[in-house]
Amino acid sequence: QVQLVQSGGGLVQAGASLRLSCVASGRIFTVYKMAWFRQAPGNEREFVADFDRTNGHTTIADAVKGRFTITGDNAKNTIDLQMNLLQPEDTAVYYCGAYVYGRPYYDNWGQGTQVTVSS
Q1: With contact defined as beta carbons under 8 Å apart, do 97 and 110 qualify?
Q2: How does pLDDT run across 85-117, given as a tens digit for each residue?
Q3: Model confidence at 72: pLDDT above 90
Q4: Which residues contact 43 (CB under 8 A, 6 or more apart)?
Q5: CA-CA distance, 15 to 17, in Å (whole number)?
Q6: Pairwise CA distance, residues 5 & 39, whole Å
Q7: Are 115 and 96 in contact (CB under 8 A)?
Q8: FRET label pair with 42: which of 88, 91, 95, 99, CA 20 to 30 Å apart?
């Protein structure tokens, strides 16, 4: 099992920045990728960004490219999401996820963090 604990988030005005952090524990050696997803009310959970623990590669969703940056630290088993130029449409609950070897997709999740951006 892998446990994920998130921190950060909150309420900000449009144009502001926030940083989310996630630390993994447990069977961390089984984790292939770590990522951020988000879910707005009435919407499905959507991919935001991921960090490949094997080679350090990152992927950013088009919706946030140029504004959000994901970084990972394998020594600390963490990923961070730096969110700049936040917009009201970024309002959602953000989840940290872990993709474990042998599993079909992400199925380990953090507790979720609310990010609210007012106009």
Answers
A1: yes
A2: 999 999 999 999 999 998 889 999 999 999 999
A3: yes
A4: 92
A5: 7
A6: 17
A7: no
A8: 99
| Mean pLDDT, rounded, for 57-79 | 97
- DSSP one-letter string for the chain: -EEEEEEE-EEEETT--EEEEEEEEESGGGEEEEEEEEE-TTS--EEEEEEETTT--EEE-TTTTTTEEEEEETTTTEEEEEE-S--GGG-EEEEEEEEETTSSS--EE---EEEEEE-
What are 10-48's pLDDT values in tens digits?
A: 999 999 999 999 999 999 999 999 999 999 999 999 999
5 within 8 A of 95, measured Cβ to Cβ: no
Q: How many CA atoms lie within 13 A of 56 on its CB side?
A: 3
CA 86 from centroid of its chain's CA atoms = 15
